[in-house]
Design goal:
Chains A, B: Keywords: Oxidoreductase, PQQ biosynthesis. The structure is a homodimer. Chain A contains eleven helices and no strands. By secondary structure, chain A is mostly helical. In chain A, helix 3 runs parallel beside helix 7. The longest helix of chain A has 29 residues.
Chain lengths: 238, 238
């Protein structure tokens, strides 16, 4: 299934219409990937779960780097003051804290060693290319587009809640206390997406900037979809 | 007076020798610029002080952006956890806090409005080019070189202490309580330069990386020098 084609905005939308368009954009996407559907219905083998966790780690370690790229291009101090929290959430403040660390503990819980996750030996080329494309996008595109690309988080709380429930129900071989990454994102993602949405609503008021924001969000959906394609191809049961 | 030519490292130095070479590199530099000498001996007119404050603001607002660029390229979480503090120091955590805000208060104290500083109407092309070169350097060069370029901070505490004393003594028309930017850097700069130095000592152990680090530091000295050239040219008494 190929990503849906997405139309440009033909005239400037009101902030509410624009928000609705953004929400529509992510609504029918990422979680519909065959791999995610199998994962959420308990059909993934331990090998598939491990492949997903090991590869998704590359995305996780790059999140602070893309957020720092946004900080580096964003000229608005007030936005930066809030955005920096994302970096701190992922990197943590001391050894053993933060989202990346939580992901490493998840990796251990599914039977991987830290070393084999951190040295990227399982990293698939398609996953690397997709994640690198995302980081490069945030470094080279206007900062508002980079902010808009983060709005896949609008759907993250539902996705995380569903994933957490699926893991607790179907993958009982994984210690449920090591699912803390998913739990923390259920509370962090709404705060983050609320901020991102507020910024994009306030700054994207013309047809051109709204189209660019929707296009950036499509791009980000493609990144996530493409990662799952590569993972499904490598580890999926067919 | 042109910047001094700086030799490459002809063989790998020990960490202590390398640190000494780094310290030598910045020791005889920035503060020796004729404009700085005049400033520190009380010879600058209010117009020169205002020109310096307004132009140096462009450097100040770009500091968090260059530090975010370093965060974005640095793959080491432990380094990022400490480096992020620089961004928070400059941006502040709430309205009215942080180093950029302190610089704006200095600007008001020397007789500028916030508006004329923030809209960059006094910004000289030479200052813009030098600062932009610095930010671009940190975005495009290896992260260790970007870290090394920050080591002009090794000299910052002395420079700031001298500047603070000069302002309090010679420029009594400026409310001394608005010199808080200089005061805060006297304590922040040693913490920052200590971290930067630790990173560079640990990671630059070959002739090639040590040469690259010294070259990055020369580049940064040139940035600061070039800014003062432009300011001296525009506002200096001749």
């Amino acid at each position: 299934m190929a990503p849906l084609a997405r139309g440009a905005v033909t005239q400037a939308l009101t902030p509410d219409e624009f928000e609705e368009a953004l929400r529509e954009h992510v609504k029918d996407y990422h979680h519909l990937h065959p791999f995610h559907r199998r994962m959420n219905t308990g059909q993934c083998s331990p090998e598939e779960i491990r492949g997903w966790v090991a590869n998704r780690f590359y995305y996780q370690v790059n999140i602070p780097r893309k957020d720092a790229a946004i900080l580096s291009t964003c000229p608005d101090r007030e936005i930066r003051r809030r955005w920096v929290q994302r970096i701190i959430d992922h990197d943590g403040t001391t050894e053993g804290t933060g989202g990346i660390e939580a992901w490493l503990r998840l990796a251990e819980a599914v039977g991987l060693t830290r070393a084999e996750v951190e040295d990227a030996r399982h990293l698939l080329p398609g996953v690397r290319f997709a994640v690198d494309a995302y980081v490069n996008f945030t470094r080279t595109r206007p900062w508002l587009e980079a902010v808009a690309s983060s709005l896949t988080e609008l759907f993250a709380p539902d996705l995380m809640a569903e994933r957490l429930a699926a893991f607790e129900r179907h993958y009982t071989w994984i210690d449920p206390k090591e699912l803390s990454y998913f739990r923390s994102r259920i509370t962090q993602a709404p705060r983050d997406s609320e901020h991102g949405l507020e910024v994009v609503r306030r700054h994207c008021v013309t047809q051109e900037t709204q189209t660019a924001a929707l296009s950036a969000l499509s791009f980000k959906c493609d990144v996530l979809w493409s990662m799952l394609d590569a993972i499904d191809q490598a580890y999926g049961n067919r």
